[in-house]
Input
Amino acid sequence: MIENRKEDHIRIAEGKEVNASHNYWDDITLIHRSIPEVDYDSIDTRVNFHGNMIDYPILISSMTGGTDLAKKINENLAWAAEKFKIPMGLGSMRAAAEKKELAGTYSVINNYKIPFKLANIGAPQLIRQDKDAMSREKIDYLMELIDAKFLIIHFNFLQEMIQPEGDRNAKGVMEKVKELAASYPVIAKETGAGFSERDIDMLIDANVKAIDVGGLGGTTFAAIEYYRAERQGEGEKAIAGKTFWNWGVPSPISLKIINGRIPAIGSGGLRNGLDLARAISMGASMGGFARTLLKGADESRESIEKNINAIIRELKIAMFLTGSGNVEDLKRADKFIHGELKEWSDYYDRRF
Output
């Protein structure tokens, strides 16, 4: 069942319309500098993330694992992570903890020299559902399996509510996160619905190392699970998938709330280097790309290379045209917030 679900997610994400109805990165306009006073060829895109130097502020976001198709995708993405000297996360690794024969679909990335790797488990698995919570021994195993520098704990409760086989219990999750953050370098990640002000305050209090905002604006798992529920004849859950298709907090708003209090990863709908520049201008240390890199990843390394090269070029153009010689300069670049995002931003300005 896990294997079928993971392959379903890949195929649906590749071939169906699963985006939120509005991409909030479009509501951020970086102000053009006619006299940038920057040498394009000297622009510094390097980032130091918790002592780990990377060449570009790009994270290959957690996507997949647990199937033969996922193994091929992970290997091709790992090749790109080595080539561009950027970090890489993996999809939920519960499958490897439960079925050791699936471990190779994740550990295949060990064949490549990646600046740092991120293991990944789901917040619902930290507490008892229909089965026992994931043990420390299993978490240790997953960290060691790929020699992970960080442990992602992903929050996907919207997905769980739509998913035909979804977990329904969230009671006690933050207590477990706090316990794990005392032993592992934890990164909290949303999977398309973003973190609210209360969520972010709780995570910072729990001493996580970073927050990957994963907000509303890109792929919505309510949409992915809608297609799965519809195909499986789960009528009520399919209807719920449509109802909650656009549920969540926009990615730029989660970054605004974080406000530099903790390293942040801007993700959720990043399509290109301009979106990445927008995310950094909102305070992100780097941006996480998923679906943008997924298409064709099972077929061709060249397609991934082409996509990343385009992202880097667009990022550097945005940096040049805002007079930003490095990533820290870009964080201070002038910008104009408009459209639906401005309404969200105004709401939080009043709250703060």
